[in-house]
Amino acid sequence: MKIGIQVNDQKPTGTETAVVYGSADVAKWDVEDPVFWESQGKRIAYRNLWISVPALLCGFAVWGMWGIITVQMLNLGFPFTQAELFTLTAIAGISGATMRIPASFLIRLAGGRNTIFLTTAMLLAPAIGTGIALQHKDWPLWVFQLMALWSGVGGGNFASSMSNISTFFPKRLQGTALGLNAGIGNFGVTTMQVVIPLVMTVGLFGSFGGESMTLLKDSGWILGKIPAGTPTWIQNAGFAWVLSLVPLSILCWFGMHNLKTVSPDTGNPIVAFAKITYLYTLAFVPAIFGLYLYLPAPTGLGLISMWVAIPLDIVSALLVMKLAAFGTMKENVAKQFLIFRDKHTWSMTALYIVTFGSFIGFSMALPLSITVIFGISHVPDANGVLQHTLKNPNAPSAFTYAWIGPFVGAAVRPIGGWISDKLGGSIVTQVISLVMVAASAAVGYVMMQAYGSATPEQYFPAFLGLFIVLFFASGIGNGSTFRTIGVIFDRQQAGPVLGWTSAIAAYGAFIAPVVIGNQIKAGTPQMAMYGFAVFYGLCLVLNWWFYLRANAYVKNP
User: Cα torsion at 188, 193, 194, 199 (round to 10°)?
Assistant: First the structure.
């Protein structure tokens, strides 16, 4: 079925209106022309934006749900160690990041409407699969790792969504539009952290949704604790998203548009879907290969460190894309690979890691970190060696508090874009980087104090408050980096650069759980946060050198 608006090739005069041909393809698009924008472009642009936002929100929810699921698996007595549960969030993280690499190029290859529809509908598979797997405590770890890997499709959706929306708006509104898309879309993290604990308390689908399990440890939701012994439907963590994904997929298909000036050779929808499916399938290959080399036995070989696995994964994904492309796809991929010759692609990649990498990484790691650090009384044994096994009766529930930081970070993201449109993106990035250096070092110190205390809950208010500062700063910074990319790069390059930088930053969802988890295991959780503070400081200098010094390459874009 064809719907939508196609604009004629005549220069608008201010009184002309779009010619409706009954197609979802828009042939003419010139939003830098104020007359065209006001008479025709604005309405189409905002229509696509408001459909894109909830679709992206669900993508984030499905991608990030393992941060909450792992905590409840621990509470329900699934037969896995804390380290094994941390791998589930890490696998979802690396998968979502890898999926963003091909997703960065999908809009030009397949069209905006085609891409957003299919990638939203694809989320149904990991949502349903996860719901089925969670009904079986006795299933092996690799089944849950496979579901976490599959959930990475939701992470990949961010790159294609941002690339798409950037093509609909003029440069002067890039910060605001992209901030709204990403900011409200990022509420998927908060939505997931609020909705999942809630839906697990009820038999949402009756007999069709499976039997409940009994909590072995206290759990919680945003209004407080849920005591051990309470029936819990953990499978609803996956099943619940079906209720929104089905109508959203329909809305994407019937409400969005392909811009032919951006995506001239998409082919018919079946051809476009084949391109998307082909490239997404290819992206799983390097992700699985890297994880197999990185993860310890019995899942993998444990041969390489995380710092080798990530570059290997990135290079492999790019190489697979380049070698596997054919026909017109090969030419389009080659054109978009030109972004790697621009030094600003690399500087903005580092700066986006500071903002989005921190946001998604801390979102993934925070629930389990709260459970492990504050859920245990850290007391010395007879030899004076600290033990981390005694349950803390006054422990705060991760489900009650973990959603607050991501909520703040997502809420201020559009504000960051709006401020940056007024003041310039780089000056805003500089200020928030300084804040993040201080807050990261401070939260590291608090974590050290809590992990050595028999009553760690006394440090929890400071811990949570400092993390909220980190989320606030990263949210503002997300908006500022969007603005900077939109100004530096032309319309053909801005979309792929947004997608690429978001792909690399998304590895924060892999890095943060692994780094924080490893340092907690080593008894030095503060070292993780001190390391992040050093990185933020280096990027503060990088931002000044490229965009704020007297002879900057581009002055405060």
Answer: 100
Count CB atoms within 10 A of the CB of residue 303. 12
Residue 433 half-sphere exposure toward CB, CA atoms < 13 A = 24
Of 464, 471, 467, the C-alpha closest to 400 is 464
**C-alpha to C-alpha distance for 445 and 447, rounded to whole angstroms:** 5
Q: State pLDDT tens for residues 369-408.
A: 898 899 889 888 777 777 887 888 888 988 889 889 989 9
SS3 category, 65? coil
What's the token pair of residue 76? Answer: 């329900």
Residues 184, 89, 362, 312, CA torsion sign: negative
Q: How far is CA 159 from CA 135, 162, 414, in A?
A: 32, 5, 17
Q: Is the peptide bond before 298 cis (omega within 30 degrees of 0)?
A: yes
Structure tokens that stand for 107 in this block: 């809009």
Q: What is the DSSP letter of 138?
A: T
CA angle 161, 162, 166 (to 5 degrees): 120
Q: What percent of the chain has pLDDT over 70?
A: 95
Residue type at position 24: A
> Is 4 a residue whose pLDDT tops 60?
no
Distance, C-alpha 494 to centroid of its chain: 19
Amino acid at 87: T
pLDDT tens-digit readout, 446-504: 999 999 899 999 999 999 999 999 999 999 998 888 789 888 988 678 777 877 888 89
Q: Is pLDDT at 5 greater than 70 in this prediction?
A: no
Confidence band (pLDDT; 50, 70, 90) for 62?
Answer: very high
Quickly list H helices, 295-412: 306-324, 327-336, 343-352, 358-374, 398-401, 404-411
Quote the pTM value. 0.81
**φ and ψ of 386, to 5 deg:** -65, 135
Burial state string for 83-119 with b = 16 or more CB within 10 A and e = fewer than 16? ebbbbbbbbbbbbbbbbbbbbbbbbbbbbbbbbbbbb
Burial 314-339 (b: 16+ CB within 10 A, else e): bebbbebbeebbeeebeebbeebbeb
305-364 tens-digit pLDDT: 889 999 998 998 888 878 877 776 677 777 778 888 999 999 999 999 999 899 988 988
Alpha helices, H only, 2-139: 34-36, 42-64, 66-75, 82-103, 106-110, 112-121, 124-133
SS3 content of the chain, % helix, strand, coil (to 5): 70, 5, 25
How sure is the predictor about 124, in pLDDT bands with cuts at 50, 70 and 90? very high
CA of 515: how far to CAs of 205, 322, 367, in Å?
38, 31, 15
